[in-house]
Specification:
single chain, about 110 residues, mainly beta, six-stranded antiparallel sheet, 6 strands, about 45% strand
Length: about 110
Amino acid sequence: MNLTTKTMETLEKKFKKVRYVGWETSMSPIVEREKKTMEYNVWWSKEEECGGFEMYDEESYGDDYHAEGSLDFTGKVLDGYDGVFSLDEEIVNCLEGMGADVKQMREDLEL
């Protein structure tokens, strides 16, 4: 994992992780998953109390699996997101590694 500082208060991390992924909706009782290498880009602007993420499968360059969205913070606390039904655990882990308080988000997402 590479952690770089874009500005004094904006952090960005790019990494890859092998995951079992599948498209899931609120109406999907069973989801068939397949093994893919997922690429993640996560950023957090502490000064602006916002961030974002993008994730996609390496094998199809995002044609098969792709998601992106925004992250909302109050100070260091991750308190919201948009763009996906449920925030991926790897993104939450990444933000925690950057110093964000993700405790309530973990509870809300049951991670």
